[in-house]
From TrEMBL:
Belongs to the TRAFAC class myosin-kinesin ATPase superfamily. Kinesin family. KIN-14 subfamily. Residues 336-380, 439-466 form a coiled coil. Residues 508-819 form the Kinesin motor domain. The keyword Coiled coil applies. InterPro entries: CH_dom (IPR001715), CH_dom_sf (IPR036872), Kinesin-like_fam (IPR027640), Kinesin_motor_dom (IPR001752), Kinesin_motor_dom_sf (IPR036961), P-loop_NTPase (IPR027417). This is Uncharacterized protein. The keyword Coiled coil applies. Pfam families: CH, Kinesin. It comes from Linum tenue. Keywords: ATP-binding, Coiled coil, Motor protein, Nucleotide-binding.
């Protein structure tokens, strides 16, 4: 049964409640005639000794003890064994209490509602407890009575057995006909009926069922039983019993019938029990249905009642009032619509707020996470800082300790210093005294010195004046000396010029000596060149054999040291080269052993850089330059030939043919010359590759032919310039080389010897000059002798290994430098002479 907490309870209960709001002052339990709390506590202690409740237990304490419902269920189970199954499926408190209250309802007993005990409203609870106490005490009385009846029956049976009658069930049947046999029948029946009839309640009906089953077990006959049941049923108030109780009563009867040995009755009873169970289920279902309908009906009737009241009220109203009501209703409706709109807006707001809340929550959780991370980082950082702080602290402590030690040391030192300074102060004081005396002495001396200084000063002034006069006289004299020195230089230059002129007049072959620097990888410590003098002196010696060869001095026109540049070398050669433009024949040849720098001086290491240019390029460049300058008065034609003499064969390097007369190539600029020379060098290189370093074993000759015409006089000038890079002059030992090498060596030796012979024949002014002894002398004939100007570059290798070659080269050069070829003559042809020659040639 569903009990509403605020429902008015008066149909079966004793109390009525109208909600917890206006609860009247709670009456005391004793005031309701159910005894005192103390008596109930005492009763409970007797019933459940384990509770051991104190006699002064308050209502509140009792409530605490009862609220889980266990005690109530246990009491009810004592009253009706098994009415509440407390073994399984129970949860404390509410479950127990609900089951208890349901059971109380089924038994039709006074009970409280769940909220009473939960809210501490103990009066109905205690009343219920009092009711239970009463019932349990009554049940005990009844039980005792029943045992008394049973004892009487048993004694009767014992009596009958003692009187010899058989002990069968018939003897125990108590019916109307055989009342005499069983004088206790009435007594029992009376006792039974009186006990139940006095209790006109469904609970007693169940008890009656129990009693009846016991009777059957004990073997009462059917007639007796029927009568008894009839009487029993008549005696008890069945009308008041609940359907549930009635079904249980019926089931008990049927259970007892099944227990009986009679097979027919057993089957009938079982069938009946099944039928009764089905009916029971249906009735219960019906009851549940009816309950629901009833609830529904009561709700509906409540509604209708209220509506009816409203309608009744409306009916009593006037038309105006109804109209006012309608307008009011309309207003309410509009208000309702507005409110609904507002509600909708609010809901929308709510949704937005929820959204916002969700996003805020998300944000919050993100922030929390971030906070966590930051917290963790912060903690780590704190840890780090702590560690650092500890370390710093330790370091500081150590430093402090060190400083303290240092301070102690310092204090000691300060004390030492103090004592030391005191002793020093003493010393200084003594010294001060000494100095004071010393100073006095010095001041006196100073005074004397000042006096002396004044007289010295006067003397110095006098001397200064005298010296000034003397200096002036010296200056005048020095001026004359400077003038004389200037004259000396100009005289020196004049001398050199005169010397050169004398040389020119004599027609001496000029010899310039050039010492090659050490090459990378060569030992620079030892050199054969001991000294180079300003006026062309050269001192050579053999550093590896100092004692053997004495120092030798040679003298040439000019000696260039290892540091001399290409420019410097050319500057001393230029005046000679320029005479070619004036109609002179000039021959410049480089002589020396292989690797002594002949090619370097004549051509230069490379033609790409102007600085590296040798005499050849610089000479031609210079010729073009001067020709250009003389453009107004002279016109020049310049032609170039380039040949190589190898093994006494002349090869034209510009055409790459072995021909008797080399080809002539006109050039007008330095670029033309560079181009031609490149061709010549390339052709020589090709041959060199084919014939294995032939350049060292061949003579290369560049011949520059200059033809100039004086624009004013018509005079014709012809000049030749031979630039010769000779083959290596070293003597080759015949036993060391054979074959081609020997042949090459022989040819070189022959041609150089022929050159020497020509030069010396010229020097001795022989009638016969052997030009034809070699190709070299043949080619150079026009420039050797015959009023030509000749310059020889003697190239030296300073390496001590080359000492003997150096020496023989220098000896040869010395002899050459002494050769007088006679004054050079210009190849000039006047216009008249030329015209006459032309006329003669045309006549022939
Ligand atoms: N004045 C110098 N300054 C620097 N290096 C030089 C000089 N003279 C010669 N040399 C170097 O010495 C080496 C030999 O020089 P070079 O080839 O001119 O000798 P060479 O007498 O012409 O030899 P060969 O008879 O074999 O032709 C080259 O590597 C050259 O660059």
């Amino acid at each position: 049964m569903n009990v509403q907490p605020q429902r008015k309870r008066n149909e079966m209960g004793i109390y009525a409640r109208f909600g917890s709001i206006a609860r009247p002052k709670e009456p005391r339990f004793e005031d309701n005639g159910y005894g005192s709390v103390k008596s109930l506590v005492e009763w409970l202690n007797n019933l459940f000794p384990y509770l051991n409740l104190p006699s002064e237990t308050t209502e509140e304490e009792l409530r605490d003890c009862l609220i889980d419902g266990t005690i109530f269920c246990s009491i009810l189970n004592k009253l009706r064994p098994g009415v509440i199954d407390m073994r399984t499926g129970f949860r404390p408190s509410a479950d127990y209490l609900k089951r208890f209250l349901d059971a109380m309802d089924e038994m039709g007993l006074l009970r409280f509602v769940l909220e009473d005990i939960q809210q501490g409203y103990m009066l109905p609870v205690l009343q219920c407890l009092g009711t239970l106490k009463e019932h349990l005490e009554n049940a005990d009385i009844y039980s005792r009575k029943r045992w008394e009846v049973r004892e009487v029956e048993l004694s009767n049976r014992v009596d009958q057995s003692q009187h010899g009658s058989s002990l069968n069930l018939d003897n125990f049947v108590v019916n109307g006909e055989d009342k005499k046999k069983n004088p206790n029948k009435d007594t029992y029946q009376h006792g039974l009926i009186s006990s139940v009839s006095s209790e006109s309640s469904p609970f007693l009906l169940l008890d009656a069922g129990n009693k009846l089953s016991e009777m059957l077990k004990q073997g009462f006959y059917a007639e007796f039983l029927d009568d008894n049941i009839k009487d029993l049923i008549k005696s008890i108030s069945v009308d008041n019993a609940s359907t549930h109780v009635l079904f249980r009563f019926l089931n008990q009867i049927l259970d007892e019938s099944i227990d009986k040995k009679d097979e027919h009755a057993y089957h009938m009873a079982r069938m009946l029990k099944q039928v009764v169970q089905v009916i029971e289920q249906r009735v219960y279902a019906q009851v549940e249905n009816l309950k629901d309908q009833n609830n529904l009906c009561s709700v509906c009737s409540g509604k209708y009642q209220s509506r009816l009241k409203v309608l009744e009220t409306l009916a009593s109203w006037s038309t105006e009032e109804i109209e006012a009501l309608f307008s009011h209703l309309k207003q309410i409706k509009m208000d309702k619509t507005g409110i609904e709109e507002k509600v909708r807006l609010k809901e929308k707001d709510l949704t937005n707020l929820k959204e916002e809340k969700r996003s805020l929550e998300n944000e919050n959780s993100a922030l929390k996470r971030e906070l966590e991370t930051l917290k963790r980082i912060h903690e780590e950082h704190c840890l780090q800082i702590e560690t650092q702080a500890k370390e710093t602290n330790q370091a500081l402590e150590k430093k402090t300790h060190d400083l303290e030690c240092y301070l102690m040391d310092s204090n000691k030192r300060v004390k030492q210093l103090e004592s030391f300074s005191e002793s020093k102060l003493e010393g200084w004081k003594k010294k001060e005294e000494t100095f004071r005396i010393f100073l006095n002495n010095h001041q006196r001396a100073l005074q004397e010195l000042r006096t002396a200084y004044a007289s010295v000063k006067q003397e110095v002034t006098m001397t200064k004046k005298r010296y000034g006069e003397e200096f002036y006289d010296l200056g005048v004299e020095l001026e004359g000396v400077v003038h004389a020195a200037d004259n000396y230089h100009s005289v020196l230059v004049e001398n050199r010029k005169l010397y050169n002129e004398v040389q020119d007049l004599k027609g001496n072959i000029r010899v310039y000596c050039r010492v090659r620097p050490f090459l990378p990888g060569q030992c620079k410590k030892l050199t054969t060149v001991e000294h180079i003098g300003e006026n062309g002196e050269l001192l050579v010696s053999n550093p590896t054999k100092p004692g053997k060869d004495k120092n030798r001095i040679f003298k040439f026109n000019k000696v260039f040291g290892q540091a001399a540049s290409q420019e410097e070398v050319f500057l001393d050669t230029r005046p000679l080269i320029r005479t070619v433009l004036d109609g002179f024949n000039v021959c410049i040849f480089a002589y020396g052993q292989t690797g002594s720098g002949k090619t370097y001086t004549m051509s230069g290491p490379s033609i790409s850089s102007k600085e590296d240019w040798g005499v050849n390029y610089r000479a031609l460049h210079d010729l073009f330059h001067i020709a250009q300058n003389r453009k107004g008065s002279m016109t020049y034609e310049i032609g170039v030939q380039m040949v190589e003499i190898y093994n006494e064969q002349v090869r034209d390097l510009l055409t790459c043919h072995a021909v008797p007369d080399a080809s002539m190539h006109q050039v007008t600029s330095t670029e033309d010359v560079l181009e031609l020379m490149n061709i010549g060098l390339m052709n020589r290189a090709v041959s060199a590759t084919a014939l294995n370093e032939r350049s060292s074993r061949s003579h290369s000759i560049i011949t520059i032919h200059v033809r100039g015409v004086d624009l004013e006089s018509g005079t014709l000038l012809r000049g030749n310039l031979h630039l010769v890079d000779l083959a290596g002059s070293e003597r080759v030992d015949r036993s060391e080389v054979t074959g081609e090498r020997l042949r090459e060596a022989q040819h070189i030796n022959k041609s150089l010897s022929a050159l020497g012979d020509v030069i010396f024949a010229l020097a001795q002014k022989s009638q016969h000059v052997p030009y034809r002894n070699s190709k070299l002398t043949q080619v150079l004939q026009s420039s050797l002798g015959g009023q030509a100007k000749t310059l020889m570059f003697v190239q030296l290798n300073p390496d001590p290994d080359s000492y003997s070659e150096t020496l023989s080269t220098l000896k040869f050069a010395e002899r050459v430098s002494g050769v007088e070829l006679g004054a050079a003559k210009s190849n000039k042809e006047g216009r008249d002479i030329r015209e006459l020659v032309d006329q003669v040639s045309s006549m022939l």
